[in-house]
Amino acid sequence: MSDFAGMEDLLQDFLIEAGDLLSGVDNKLVDLERAPDDRGLLNEIFRGFHTIKGGAGFLNAAELVTLCHLTENLFDNLRTGAVQVTPEVMDVILEATGTVRAMFSHLAHNAQPAPAEPALIARLKQAIAGDLSAATPRAPSVEPPRAPAGEPARAGRADVSQRGEPDWEALHGVVTGLPARTPGAVKPAVIVPAQPARPPEEVIQAAIGRRGNDKPDTAAPAGRRDIEKQRDNSIRVDTTRLDQVLNLSGEIGLTKNRLNALRSDILSGRNDTETLHSLDLAVSQLDLLVSDLQNAVMKTRMQPVGRLFQKYPRIARDLARNMGKDVELVLDGEETEIDKTMIEDLADPIIHLIRNAVDHGVEDPAERIANGKPEKSMVRLEARQEGDHIILLVADDGRGMNPERLRAKALEKGLITDEESNTMDERQSFNLVFLPGFSMASQVSDVSGRGVGMDVVRTNIQKLNGSIEIKSQLGKGTTFVISLPLTLAILPVLLVRLGEQPFAVPLSMVREILPIDMREVQEVGGRATMVVRGEVLPILPLAGMLGWPLERAPGYGVLMQAAELSFILAIDSFAGREDAVIKSLDDFRPKGVAGVTTLSNGQIVLILDMKELLGSSGDFRGMARLALTPQHAVAA
């Protein structure tokens, strides 16, 4: 049963607003660590916790109110100068914000949050009192030092009795049968023991309020995902954009009325030149208005990428501190807008890239100083729009990537052959990191070594019809360049034909179109190939990939690039380029079909999922030359 019956709308509003507030607080905390004397930052963070506490009070979330109140008191002391900002105090504050975010998760399930850990409450109280020293979180044990031969224990109980209070420790011992604890041991008992370096998954969970195993393509309990989907369905839209949609809708309504009037005139026999000219103008105006409305509606789905970026400074800070590194994450282009659905799907890939930059990319402080670099490493997260694409950059100023070492490691793991290694250029060598099972780590640990992270990154980027490229300079750093379409609702496609049947393939995969002359088709290693500007490329007939009989020899080839695989898609003809509005096939989706679209003549066209078709064709390297020969010709 819900703990918030009758307050569901208030709860959802609180979670959205408080979540934004807490994300802003996390970023300000990272800034505060770099500028501990900034009173403006202290005041803003104080107000953030105060606002969250007030909203939690309306919902009667007592445990959340308690935690926010203690954190608020700590910031009040920081504002007045009674307590100084130290790394230990920042650790406690960031741990508190992580717990607040975890409490939000409980609230999202319509349940009151559990109390914060007693150790965290104790450390907050110590920080408020100014007693939190560097040694406090590294105490060797929660058990107090054993007192010599009973004297301190007796003295302690005597002190209690002298104050006229019950001997609670003795009473506890009688009830539980356990030895009575000495009063001197009570205070050390709340000291938190030394914590080993936390796995990155735990650090990420604390920073963004999710479990460490929430990686792309992994399942989670249905209840949790259902809640997330409900929350993700909301979107904030500028009212000016909604006003634009409303105005365009009104204009379209007026144009529709004009068309209805002209239709009545034509049906009544008025076919004069003036009437037909008015009809032409009305249709042209309607076409313009519909295009404007489509663009306006698309803009309502666009959100600043800063909403995605704002969680990463905290993650980078926590990971770096956990690994003993000094890293600053610099954000740029936060105002760049991207489709809301893409923002959600980009969260995990960017977390992987930032984690890799902090873990593998940047060096330890001692190594950086030895190499003549500043002790502090810089990781840059940037977004910008180029034409109809969004470019995301994740760059570091670390050690860079060594192509020779990458090829040697791939050979050692059996991921490539000697022949492939010898023919690889620098770009292909860098892309080896995307192979499943590839890792430069010598042993598997909580941090790295399993060789799945970068493979997942590329897979998820490709699901968004995007691409990822690596640029690296040894000793200077590495940059990951992600290119994405502005939106997933409209997909530029190339229309190709098998006989009279059209199919659509994503234009982002198309490099060029070229004629196929069977006299130029050669068979290499039992596979049909063509040489294009010195590059030997396999030919894959679309008919064979779909399981159709080949009725005629292919007339054209579409040179396509899918990840690291370049190939020529053999087709009969092509019909040009279209901007397809994708309609998904939720109830029934044949293998190799991403969706459908409708052409201007009303014909329904299947949009092919080339990556899925390649996987189902059984051989990425091509087919025999005989497969390009029509069946009736073979029979003859």
What does this structure look like?
- With 636 residues, the protein is of the alpha+beta class.
- 47% of the residues lie in helices and 18% in strands.
- It has 23 helices and 18 strands.
- The termini are far apart.
Question: What's this entry about, in short?
Answer:
With 636 residues, this protein is α+β, with helices and mostly antiparallel strands. It is built from 23 helices and 18 strands.
Report the helical percentage: 40-55%
Uncertain segments are 135-166, 174-196, 210-231, 443-451, 632-636
User: How would you describe the shape?
Assistant: flat
Radius of gyration: 32 Å
Largest sheet: spatial strand order: 10-14-15-13-12-11
Profile the largest sheet. Answer: 6 strands, mixed
Beta-strand content estimate: 15-25%
Number of helices: 23
The span between the termini is 74 Å
Mean pLDDT: 79
Number of strands: 18
Structural class estimated from helices and strands: alpha+beta
Layout of helices and strands, plus pairs?
Elements: H1 8-34, H2 39-58, H3 62-80, H4 87-108, H5 118-129, H6 151-162, H7 168-176, H8 183-189, H9 200-208, H10 222-232, H11 239-267, H12 273-300, E1 302-304, H13 306-309, H14 312-322, E2 327-332, E3 337-339, H15 340-361, H16 365-370, E4 377-386, E5 389-396, H17 403-412, H18 418-423, H19 426-430, H20 453-463, E6 467-473, E7 477-485, E8 490-498, E9 501-506, E10 510-515, E11 522-524, E12 527-532, E13 535-541, H21 542-546, E14 556-562, E15 565-571, E16 573-581, E17 593-598, E18 604-608, H22 610-616, H23 631-635
Parallel strand pairs: 2-4, 9-18, 13-15
Antiparallel strand pairs: 1-3, 4-5, 5-7, 6-7, 8-9, 8-16, 10-14, 11-12, 12-13, 14-15, 17-18
